[in-house]
Structures are given as C-alpha cells and as structure tokens.
C-alpha cells in the first residue's frame, strides 16, 4: 500500500510541531510534507528533517497562493494548525488576518483546484 502524503502547516509552532513529531513516528505508512516559511530559524530548525524518512519541505508562505498550490499538489490529507497567535497577533492584527484568514483561504482554494484537476 502506498504511503499517504500528509501536508502539515504550522510545523514550527507549538501545536504544529507536536503534530509533526507524531507524523515522524508514523513514516512507515505516512509521508509528511510541510510548508514552512524560509526564515533563518525555520531553515536551521528543520534542516535535519528535509528529505529524512520521506519528509518533504515546501519552502513558502501561506499568504502566497502559488506556494500553497505547490504544497497541496498531490496530497491526501491537509492538517492546518498554522496561525499567528497572541501576543504577535495583537501587535499586528492586519498581518494576523492575512495569515490566519488569507492563508486558510489559499489552502481551501488550492484543495478545490486539486480536486478539480483530479476529477476534471
């Protein structure tokens, strides 16, 4: 049986990182794919995982529809715990909305496009 590809957003956050660690424990049957902002911190934190045990990293941004389309392409499941939360969200509510609402809309749009492509 082929491994199911699971896209995970927010793997650098607290909840997302716990989900990532759980996916790592299941690489015998799952192929984790992450979309991560290409920040210095993320590149350093996730360098050891890129390509390891079938982990795939899409370096991109949830607010960029093209990055999200690349991340969603061919996945079986999307887990989306990514969010800008307090206190950063309180300091920059416009950016929080762009990430939390806009990023989620980009994921929804990419999933719809992927479904349409698969059935079309």
Strand order, main sheet: write it out.
3-2-1-4
Percent in helix? 40-55%
Order of helices and strands: EHEHEHEHH
* Rg value: 14 Å
Percentage of residues in strands: 15-25%
Q: Name the poorly predicted regions.
A: none
| Strand element count | 4
Derived from helix and strand composition plus strand pairing, the structural class reads alpha/beta
* Average pLDDT score: 95
Brief rundown of the structure:
Helices cover 48% and strands 17% of the residues. The protein contains 5 helices and 4 strands; from the N terminus they run βαβαβαβαα.
Written account of the structure:
The chain contains five helices and four strands. With 120 residues, it is of the alpha/beta class. It has a four-stranded parallel β-sheet with strand order 3-2-1-4, with helices on both faces. The chain starts with a strand and ends with a helix.
How would the blueprint of this fold be written?
Layout: E1 4-9, H1 14-24, E2 30-36, H2 40-46, E3 56-59, H3 65-72, E4 77-79, H4 88-91, H5 93-119
Parallel strand pairs: 1-2, 1-4, 2-3
Helix pairs in contact: 3-5
Keywords for this structure?
120 residues; 5 helices; single chain; alpha/beta; 4-stranded parallel β-sheet
């Amino acid at each position: 049986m082929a491994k199911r590809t699971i896209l995970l957003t927010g793997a650098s956050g607290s909840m997302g990182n716990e989900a990532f660690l759980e996916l790592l424990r299941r690489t015998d049957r799952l192929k984790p794919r992450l979309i991560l902002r290409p920040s210095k911190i993320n590149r350093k934190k996730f360098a050891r995982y890129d390509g390891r045990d079938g982990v795939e990293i899409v370096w991109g941004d949830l607010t960029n529809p093209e990055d999200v389309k690349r991340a969603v392409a061919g996945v079986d499941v999307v887990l989306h715990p990514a969010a800008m939360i307090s206190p950063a969200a309180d300091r920059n509510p416009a950016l929080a909305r762009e990430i939390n609402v806009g990023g989620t809309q980009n994921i929804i749009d990419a999933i719809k496009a992927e479904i349409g492509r698969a059935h079309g």
